[in-house]
Amino acid sequence: MAKKEQKKEKSYLENITNKIGEIATHYGFTVIKPPQITPSDLSRAKHFKEFDHYGDAHEKVNLTQWYINERLDQETQPIAIHYKKPVLPGVKKNLGLEMYCFEIMGSSRPTSEALILKCALSILEELGYKDLFVDINSIGDKESMQNLKRD
Q1: pLDDT per residue over 49-84, tens digit each?
Q2: Distance CA 59, CA 64 (A)
Q3: Could you tell me the CA-to-CA distances from 103 to 43, 148, 151 in Å, in that order?
Q4: Alpha carbons within 13 A on the beta-carbon side of 105
Q5: Fold of 2-150
């Protein structure tokens, strides 16, 4: 019985993965393999420790190196990519939890962020979530951070 339940759950998770991939592609994201973090990436990421609010600087370093090595700056910009990875990389039993990552490289326009938000909302709606909204704050800029600390 347990095998049957595992197979059913795997089929369900594959269905979700396929839906996410389809929606991401619809919004212009290219599905890629997740970055393979190297010791060099970890070493270079230490320089960004102060700015690494999400603990993923090593991944960003790896993606930037990939962007440069593949000469993606020569392609039409921006480059929109999507990949999935384990939530807890390196843990032997990661419980099958996965994270779906969306990146837009080669653009500093706020419309890139809006595209990621719209894609994420569409995915959640497709998965059955209702009454979704996005609450955007402005804590990310230096002035707002200083005001927050002061207040």
Answers
A1: 888 877 888 999 999 999 999 999 999 999 999 998
A2: 9
A3: 22, 28, 33
A4: 21
A5: BirA Bifunctional Protein; domain 2 (3.30.930)
